Amino acid sequence: MLSRLIIRNYALIEDLDISFSHKLNILTGETGAGKSIILGALSLLLGQRAESRYFYNQQKKCVIEGIFAVSGYNLSSFFVEKDLDYEDETVLRREISADGKSRAFINDTPVNLTVLRELGELLIDIHSQHATLEINDEKFQLLVVDSLAANATLLTAYQENYLAYRKDTARLKELEEESRQAKADLDYYQYQFNELEQASLINDEQEILEQELTALSHAEEIKRNLIAATYLLNNNDQAAVVQLKESLSQLQHIERFFPSVKELSQRLESTIIEIKDIAAEIETLEQKTQINEERSAEINERLAIIYNLQKKHRVTTIQELTDIKARLSDKLYSISFADDEIEKLKAGCSKLKAELIGLSDTLSASRNEVIPSIEDRIKEMLTEVGMPHAVLKIENILLDEDQLNYTGRNKIQFLFSANKGQEPAPVNKVASGGELSRLMLSIKSLISRHTALPTIIFDEIDTGISGEVALKVGRILEKLADGMQVIAITHLPQIASKGDAHYFVYKDERQDRTHTNISLLGKEERVTEIAKMLSGENPGEFALQHARELLETGY
Predict the structure, then answer these.
(1) Ordered alpha helix ranges (H), 89-151
(2) pLDDT attached to residue 487
(3) CB distance 120 to 70 below 8 Å
(4) What tens digit of pLDDT does each residue of 469-490 get?
(5) For the segment 70-86, what is each residue's pLDDT rounded down to a tens digit?
(6) pLDDT number for residue 555
(7) Which of 370, 464, 494, 549 is deepest in the core (most CB within 10 A)?
(8) Residue 376 falls within a domain, yes or no?
């Protein structure tokens, strides 16, 4: 519900602040007074394209702000989806600068015009003679039928199953594509796995083989140096062991009269034993060191296998090759069992689809059952509003099972004829502005008690009617406003008299400029305004009395 509308610096409006009733709001005023300007400002708030040439003052920005009570509209999911703060009293604001740049806000959070427009469509439905309304939208037409058929619970159950079905069919398609691609690559994966499997790779093998190969490649040099080392330590007259023994003998010779060297003698003796052990180990190493070209070739062949695998898979270690082998094994396993998962998912999708078809058939039957009642009730209401020959036909086309969608498998289409003998056709092709307004009024009045509807604005719904028909249109608007907020712009006193709040739009001149203003009329002001609508600028006592009679039920 639109609680309050603030307009600054737009067209002939310098500054307006309007608070609306939650029921039936009436706007009246002379032609050209600015009623359409107010609607234009509201359209900007709802995301319409802005032009700075319509500013009241070209040096200032235009600001339009709407405060909406939204607690009854189940809009919290919209705010969550758009990452916006939800407030029961939601504020929409549009700012347009003099250079044409526009900014939009929802509860002080900046948004783009698309988001502003999406929320605006959920809050306000502006119906003018020159606008194509939601009545031409298949979604709205289906909403009308489902609302009156009380299909909310059934439709929710269907939609939950439908979303699950869509999710599973998408996953099935993904698995089938993966399986197709995997099977195409199966031989390649198997070849790679077999190659790694046959290599019988062992962690740390590469480092050990590389070290052994290095030793074999330098075996002659190693053997020569080991022999030399052994010779220097132990195998000639000048060998280290011989020299150390001679040193030990010298020390032992003086031990009996110089005890201080005894400890040194013992240490030197230990050193000689250690050097003898080192020399023995060097000699053993020298004897084991062989020039083995056959072993070198064998190691080179093994390393070549490892290096080729590493190059092929673009890695540098055996551990990485082992990891690749494990991944290939997982892929081969998945491929071998993918068909089982696919078949299981196919069975689940078939079951869900069968359930969906059953639910859609139930929905379709419910819709078919209520359609004659809707057609009859709309015809009665159209007759009341001066269209006795008007007919609304509702076609319910059952789609193929493969055409299941979010709302079932029905295509609803409204066909309308306003004149006797005229074949019903799609609404947008045959209804005039005034006829469309009264048709929409009848439909909205019918469904307002069954579902939460946005605020609806009727711009000159009274076109082409008068007298008793106008009075009936006023009563329907009054009844419609029991369940939703209605704003009606009218020139007819019969309609104006039914409002819960009556606003008068007028022009005045100040400082050599024309301004559009609006005022909420009090009781006597309203009597006078309706009397003027009945008889002209200077109403007599008869017109005033008639106005009081029209307003009698309101006081």
Answers:
(1) 113-123, 138-148
(2) 92
(3) no
(4) 888 888 888 888 888 899 999 8
(5) 987 788 888 988 999 99
(6) 41
(7) 494
(8) no
Domain count, the chain: 1
- Cβ atoms of 2 and 20 closer than 8 Å: yes
Phi, psi of 539 (to 5 degrees): -70, 140
CA end-to-end distance (rounded Å), the chain = 25
User: What is each CA distance from 546 to 26, 535, 541, 550, 552, in whole angstroms?
Assistant: 18, 10, 9, 6, 10
Q: What percent of the chain has pLDDT over 70?
A: 96
Q: Which of 203, 213, 188, 185 is nearest to 321 (CA)?
A: 203
Q: Interior CA angle at 541 toward 539 and 547, to 5°?
A: 70
| Sequence-ordered list of residues with C-beta below 8 angstroms from that of 19, at least 6 positions apart, any chain | 3, 4, 520
What are the percentages of helix, strand and coil residues in the chain, rounded to 5?
60, 15, 25
Give the integer Cα–Cα distance in Å for 130 and 431. 12
Residue 200 belongs to some domain of the structure: yes
pTM above 0.85, yes or no: no
Q: Does the pLDDT at position 288 exceed 60? A: yes
How far is 214 from 203, CA to CA, in rounded Å? Answer: 19
pLDDT grade for 324, boundaries at 50, 70 and 90: very high
- Residue 554's pLDDT is 45
Compute CA distances 164 → 153, 154, 340, 408, whole Å.
17, 16, 20, 14
Query: What is the distance between the alpha carbons of residues 345 and 223, in angstroms, rounded to a whole number?
Result: 70
Q: Calculate mean pLDDT across residues 523-540.
A: 89
- The three-state DSSP-derived secondary structure of 4-41 is EEEEEEECCEEEEEEECCCCEEEEECCCCCCHHHHHHH
Whether 179 contacts 338, CB under 8 Å: yes
Q: How many CA atoms lie within 13 A of 467 on its CB side?
A: 3
Q: Is residue 203 part of a domain?
A: yes
Span of 312-326, 426-440, 540-554 with lowest mean pLDDT: 426-440
Q: Can you name the residues that pair with 488 across neighbouring β-strands?
A: 26, 458
In contact, 96 and 89? CB cutoff 8 Å: no
Cβ atoms of 44 and 68 closer than 8 Å: no
Distant-in-sequence, close-in-space partners of 164: CB < 8 Å, separation ≥ 6: 352
Beta bridge partners of 505: 518
pLDDT at residue number 132: 47
Alpha-carbon span 266 to 281, nearest angstrom: 23
Alpha-helix runs per DSSP H in 314-412: 318-384
Q: Is the pLDDT of residue 371 over 90?
A: yes
HSE-CB for 338 with a 13 A CA cutoff: 21
Q: Is residue 510 part of a domain?
A: no
The span from the CA of 258 to the CA of 246, in Å, is 18
Q: What angle do CA 508, 51, 115 make, to 5 degrees?
A: 115
Q: Which domain holds residue 192?
A: 181-334
Collapse the DSSP code of 409 into the 3-class scheme (helix H, G, I; strand E, B; otherwise coil) and give the result. Answer: coil
Is residue 499 within 8 A of residue 514, CB to CB? The reply is no
What b/e readout covers 260-285, taking b as 16+ CB neighbours within 10 angstroms?
eeeeebeebeeebeebeebbeebbee
